[in-house]
Amino acid sequence: MATCSASAVMEAALRNTVSHKALCLVNGAFGRRWFQMARANGIPADSLHFEPGKPIDPEVVGHHLAKNRYDVVTFVHVETSTGVQNPLEAVAAVVRLHPDTLLLVDAVSSLLTTELDFDALKLDFCLTASQKGLALPPGLAIFAVSERLLERARRIRHRGYYLDFLRFRDYALVRETPNTPAVNLLYALETRLSSLRRIGIGAEIRRCAEMAELCRSWAKKRFSLFPDEKYAANSVTVVRCPPSFSVEKLNLFLAEHGFRISDGYGDLKGRTFRISHMGAVVKSEISSLISLIDQFLAS
Amino acid sequence: MATCSASAVMEAALRNTVSHKALCLVNGAFGRRWFQMARANGIPADSLHFEPGKPIDPEVVGHHLAKNRYDVVTFVHVETSTGVQNPLEAVAAVVRLHPDTLLLVDAVSSLLTTELDFDALKLDFCLTASQKGLALPPGLAIFAVSERLLERARRIRHRGYYLDFLRFRDYALVRETPNTPAVNLLYALETRLSSLRRIGIGAEIRRCAEMAELCRSWAKKRFSLFPDEKYAANSVTVVRCPPSFSVEKLNLFLAEHGFRISDGYGDLKGRTFRISHMGAVVKSEISSLISLIDQFLAS
């Protein structure tokens, strides 16, 4: 657990593991971010692109790995910019065929919205942020690393200081953090974890899936889904809207009722809008939001 | 303003500015940290050491700079581990004789406890953290950079991603942050800044100076000061204690009354203890603490 946004720890994961080269799987803005991070740190990296809205294809990844040698593969579980949940299990199976290649997973927007078993999938790195499924204020990044990754890190000379994973491990073993942490958020995290233990992770995932289903079936009637429906995420629905549609005007109307939705991310702005259904969001809010958008469309 | 501990931004300041070599001025644990950070990032650096408890000597710095070329000099204003306030004005004057050398200042524990004029001293980088003089929960690092520094950063190829100062500037110009910030702390910061505007920065500095004076005159009577008294900081008093003295036992006694003090930092543990008098601390707490320690000594 580190005091920073998720991006800082994604960057650190690359700095702690890559000496030869990284492979970044890209089908949206967050997949691309791993690649930009590698470049900003002078870390050699290739990117393998898939169409936005479509999932990462494990077969293509397999073919690519058969022909090239990589220290790590970076993977975004739920690509928030397009609403796609990428097939983690299948990609992990393909990467696991290459024993020297670590699998780094951005689960920022997927944790607690869908199944994710770090150990069963033999992941090497997985990360989330406090403000998504965990429903806390932003400011903490929470991550897990494998023993394999720590062994790799030992051989990397310039891992950096603040997010040196070996320092984090040493401090974690004595239940400390290497630097002054965001103490207030730690208290919030403790409370949320107790409540999750009570609710059950399975129940929390089902709750998100129900909100997602409600949102998707509505979006298909009124607009259309941006992502391939088979791969639509439980955490966020990305709705494709006609060019004439103004998200700005919709938000002015919604604001009168205390609501607000996100415009499309990056180059999808104006062509899509996004409705989140995870963490702090509850079903009655999704129902109210949907009927407000219906009112807006009828007006 | 970045969501992280101060250390992350100290490290970033080196990564954004050094291509040839850094000079780290060291008279305690935080001075040494800059040097460790340079090494952890593969950044060439020299360290110039001064005795702990004594201030950094501007004349020695001047001689050293006359014989060597550095991209930056790193400087800790208040060295929290020893309670020394280093002579910023004099060191800045010496560094300013070398137009290609930037001056990076860690003001984590000095801001709002003593005068600090970024513009008048022509500093290039200055940083504090939310939990010291600003009296907020930890989790935000607040920093200023010079135009000169940004020009330098443009020529540095691998500045990193999360704390690339040029990205921060681009976002700051549109009143945004490059990544999701710790929003709750931003509200707290806003409130604290309004209150500081009302109180006045001068009054806040005088308040810390008064608490420091109270603490120092008591410490000289009962124990002795660790730092050279002429350079004793207004933010923290580091008290030298006899080897027979147990800070642990003192803290057990203090805990009964809701108080707790810090043991010495790093290798000064057991030989010193530290009393903070800045930010959220008020004079009546210092008075109560002092009389409790007197009770402990008498028992």
Write the layout of secondary structure elements.
The structure is a homodimer of 299-residue chains.
Chain A: E1 2-3, H1 6-15, E2 22-26, H2 29-40, E3 45-49, H3 58-67, E4 72-76, E5 78-79, E6 84-85, H4 88-95, E7 102-106, E8 125-129, E9 140-145, H5 147-154, H6 165-173, H7 183-199, H8 201-222, E10 224-225, E11 236-240, H9 247-255, E12 262-263, E13 272-276, H10 283-298
Parallel strand pairs in A: 2-3, 2-4, 4-7, 7-8
Antiparallel strand pairs in A: 1-9, 5-6, 8-9, 10-11, 11-13, 12-13
Helix pairs in contact in A: 1-2, 3-4, 8-10
Describe the structure.
The structure is a homodimer of 299-residue chains. The first copy, chain A, has 299 residues and is α/β, with parallel strands linked by helices. Chain A has helices at 6-15, 29-40, 58-67, 88-95, 147-154, 165-173, 183-199, 201-222, 247-255, 283-298; strands at residues 2-3, 22-26, 45-49, 72-76, 78-79, 84-85, 102-106, 125-129, 140-145, 224-225, 236-240, 262-263, 272-276. A 7-stranded mixed beta sheet of chain A has the order 1-9-8-7-4-2-3, sandwiched between helices. In chain A, strand 5 (78-79) and strand 6 (84-85) form a beta hairpin. In chain A, helix 1 crosses helix 2 (29-40), helix 3 (58-67) runs parallel beside helix 4 (88-95) and helix 8 packs parallel to helix 10. The first copy, chain A, is globular and about 65 Å long. The model of chain A has no long low-confidence stretch (mean pLDDT 97). At the A-B interface, helix 1, helix 2 and helix 7 of A face helix 1, helix 2 and helix 7 of B.
